[in-house]
Amino acid sequence: xxxxxxxxxxxxxxxxxxxxxxxATGGYQSLQQxxxxxxxxxxxxxxxxxxxxxRGGAGFPTGVxxxxxxxxxxxxxxxxCNCDEMEPGTYKDGELLLADPHQLVEGxxxxxxxxxxxxxxxxxxxxxxxQAENLRRAIVEATEAGFLGQNILGSGFNFExxxxxxxxxxxxxxxxxxxxxxxxxxxxPRLKPPFPAVKGLFGRPTTVNNVETLANIQHIVSGGxxxxxxxxxxxxxxxxxxxxxxxxxxxxxxxxxxxxxPLRQLIxxxxxxxxxGRKFKACLPGGASTPYLTAxxxxxxxxxxxxxxxxxxxxxxxxxxxxxxxxxxxxxLNLIRFFARESCGWCxxxxxxxxxxxxxxxxxxxxxxxxxHLEMLKDQxxxxxxxxxxxxxxxxxxxxxxxxxxxxxxxxxxxxxxxxPFQ
Length: 423
Ligand SMILES: Cc1cc2nc3c(=O)[nH]c(=O)nc-3n(C[C@H](O)[C@H](O)[C@H](O)COP(=O)(O)O)c2cc1C
Fold this sequence. Notes:
The protein is an alpha/beta fold. The protein folds into three domains: 211 residues, Rossmann fold (3-Layer(aba) Sandwich); 92 residues, Ubiquitin-like (UB roll) (Roll), CATH 3.10.20; 90 residues, NADH-ubiquinone oxidoreductase 51kDa subunit, iron-sulphur binding domain (de novo design (two linked rop proteins)), CATH 1.20.1440.230. It has 18 helices and eleven strands. A five-stranded mixed sheet has the order 6-5-11-8-9, covered by helices on one side. Helix 7 links the parallel strand 2 and strand 3. Helix 5 crosses helix 6 and helix 14 packs antiparallel against helix 15. Bound molecules: flavin mononucleotide (FMN). The site of flavin mononucleotide has 23 residues, from strand 4 and helix 17.
């Protein structure tokens, strides 16, 4: 297996690489190359051909999204980087910015050139204070070196980049809530359509992309679309991915590995196996909003299509592992407590539905459940899925769907014993 390091190539434990170090390994050469050799259309086409899919969770093809963007429309247009990253089990963007903040800055300048936007914002969660500090310094360095600002490298292209530190809530990661937050409004999601590409920040065309998505752009420029696609281990995949390991593993770190990694290899080789000599029971493959996988899925390839085929999602590739002593009802309750608390309250299925699901799981976990509660849980899954205003509630129900599909017997054991069988 190739272990090509693109995004983590400058990563050293406890160190941050700034301009000199970044340039020493080829940093900003893609920018020079693109401004010299590529038109914005050619760059957009290259990204489309690379089959890069959004790394923020939904996996939407970046090139397709960029083609919806009216790059030729006069007037203000914006590029926004989503660095909210508050989903439990997802910490890859934070790791990237701790190690190498210029990766994002160069990626954003290139993306802005492709989209012909001249203003960009990085929306960063409040808790990422060190990452924000790193970005602040990187922006100053890039401006002083002539990579940001007016007439970049004499090309006539202008781009200014601003850092916006948010108050920090999970809903702010939803792209339209993020835009409201950036405008200083209450971060409720907006109705789509119109999509941000048509009417986004301050009512103007806007593209919102994830940190890791944007950081990939310079590598697609320098290596080419075909090379990028071939980095993946599966036909359907492309590129590398930052896999953030957490949970009951001997090693919980973030690794850059090809898209399409077999789950078993990720756990055994990179996670150094399940901790305390215990057995693998389940995992969330792509952050807290993805349905569980079980031991029968250990040979699945971690890419968007393969995970959808087994009823889950690649999401953010934040892989959280649970050992065989875990109560899956308790684990799901723990996740639902987070999601119910983070609901912005804008729509009923999310505000009231998640509260109801939390209550049902609490009732079952504390041994007070009856078969009726199990039926009500199934009913809530039907009622909430596809009926909420944004994808928060849908995502929140991912682990609940996994619980009902793979661990219904565990729920029944709680009902029959009148207590949690794992306590
Ligand atoms: C509740 C919720 C939280 C989200 N949080 C994030 C986040 O922290 N970072 C992120 O990039 N995308 C997040 N997303 C997805 C964004 O709405 C959007 O799809 C993404 O930023 C697009 O970038 P991409 O195409 O590069 O992946 C979230 C979505 C929802 C519904």
